[in-house]
# Entry
Amino acid sequence: MINLYEMLYRDFKWDKPGSIVFAWSDTEKFVYDNHTLEKVMYDQMKNNSYHSICCEPNAVFPECNQHPVLSFILYDYTHGTKLSEVNSQYMDFFLKKKMVDPNSHQTAMLYLVKQDLTLSQSNPHYGSAIDILFTPAIALHLATLDSPTANGWTGTFMHGWQPDYIERLYPEWKKQQVIEKDKETAELKNESWEPLVRYGFFAMLAGEMGDMDTRDKLLNYADKKFAPVWQDGTYHYPYNPGKGCTNFSDKLFAFARANPRNGLWLLHNKPFDKAHFAEPKLAGVDFPNVLVKRAIYDANKKALVVSIEPGSKKGGNTSFEVRQLDPFRSYVYFVDGKEIGKYQGQATIVLKPALDNPHDLVLAAE
# Structure
């Protein structure tokens, strides 16, 4: 999250010493900054014999390790380092230990370090006393380790750095786990591992793959099943574990709706460059009273395009600044295609659009 934020905004406040504090209690705190946190993650992935990071004692999860991998890529981009070189070692481990089963194509649950075992549907063994109950439950189909959640979570984020690998796997995941009920909706097979978030994660994956038909069918199912509501101009799925929806699901569905095809891949392989940060930009947006649905600068047409709509407030006007304009140019301001005014000789201007309805705003250089 920190390195994605730094790439998007070039705000390096998290690089300052002591800027990240994990406080277990008043007397037990762990103080980091972005540099030291990256180093801890890198050292683990580099020096651990399994070239990955345990997010629980003795347990390496395939989905969780996608996040430090992506972090290294972004950190390298903004800091000129080469931490992401370790990612190839992690990938070697991933394949060697069959974190995706080469026969079933299903993502494993986890790798157990001390036992040197990969726990999966085809190898349902913890290497401990729990196997007395666990292994027969899998054999009798009372539980399953095949997981739309594991596939969706791992696949979405791994696509950011291993797109060809995930694109080969996706048709198998879809074939095995997506059940199309009709032309409008699709369901996912039940799972034992994380049943409350499987729809959100797999919808995310479908969108990242560009399979908008499957994504929309899963979202349609969620709309019918989880009773979404509008709150302050935004769309939410209320917490209802009885129906299979959590606060986490709510955020995953939002991600699935917002993310275009290859969205994660683009963020990590074509991040914002220096030229991007010299373009005109918005500042001082009155969120949540106004929602910015789109803000794009078209460098060829020298035009800033902004789409807004009322959020928690409807009526009256809002205001925000447009900064980094060329003071030697004149600009024409349009609202919904109608010319409203002109500006000249200003590097920063203030726009005050109405909050009565959605509007498309354009500020174009003459």
Remarks:
- The chain has three domains: 1-96, 147-275, 279-365.
- The domain at 279-365 is CATH 2.60.40 (Immunoglobulin-like).
- The chain has a mean pLDDT of 95.
- Residues 186 and 290 are 34 Å apart (CA to CA).
